[in-house]
Amino acid sequence: MLLKHLKTILPAQDGAAKITAMTWSYNNVKLAVCTADRVVIMFDENGEKKDKFSTKPIDAKYGKKSYVVKGLAFSPDGTKLAIGQSDNIIFVYKIGEDWGEKKVICNKFVQSAAVTCLIWPLEGPIVFGLADGKVRGANVKSNKSQTLYQTESYVVSLSPK
């Protein structure tokens, strides 16, 4: 395998953890990158910046610096973006098919512990891990979530296959 550097999409910054999460859409047309200041920047398949929006805390009274984005995942059709946060919530944003469309929260999944990772498989619910050891599934149609597996260990990562 030969890897070739094509382009730098975000300039280097001083300090650690400037990028907290990133994900490609299934059709490889959209790249979402979340920075440490909790802003999601959207790029096209050529690495050109197309859009950006700020994420929100579970409750505005806690302020913008009360959480960290721990995971991003596109819906199978690329029109929604799930954002898992350390303030015990997953927001699903409707981002639309075209660049520049208004970003609207269409689902909220409040949890008992911090979200640590998440995936959105081609079929089925959003699957996510929590700091308390639960692996849960979130159904965007019913707006409900359920526990799929439970352990005593922090959930570090998930893989769709």
How do the strands line up in the largest sheet? 1-2-3-4
SSE run: EEEEEEEEEEEE
Tell me the β content.
35-45%
Shape: globular
Structural Rg: 16 Å
CATH hierarchy, class of the domain at 19-119: Mainly Beta
Arithmetic mean pLDDT? 94
Helix content: under 10%
CATH T-level fold name of the domain at 19-119: Lipocalin
Quick structural gist:
With 161 residues, the chain is mainly β.
Keywords:
globular, four-stranded antiparallel β-sheet, mainly beta, 161 residues
Explained architecture:
β9 (115-119) and β10 form a beta hairpin. The model has no long low-confidence stretch (mean pLDDT 94). The chain starts with 18 loop residues before the first strand and ends in an 11-residue tail after the last strand. By secondary structure, the protein is an all-beta fold. 0% of the residues lie in helices and 45% in strands. It has no helices and 12 strands. The protein has a domain at 19-119: Lipocalin. It has a 4-stranded antiparallel beta sheet, with no helix packed on it.
What topology does this entry show?
Blueprint: E1 19-24, E2 30-35, E3 39-44, E4 49-54, E5 69-74, E6 80-85, E7 89-94, E8 104-110, E9 115-119, E10 126-130, E11 134-139, E12 144-150
Antiparallel strand pairs: 1-2, 2-3, 3-4, 5-6, 6-7, 7-8, 9-10, 10-11, 11-12
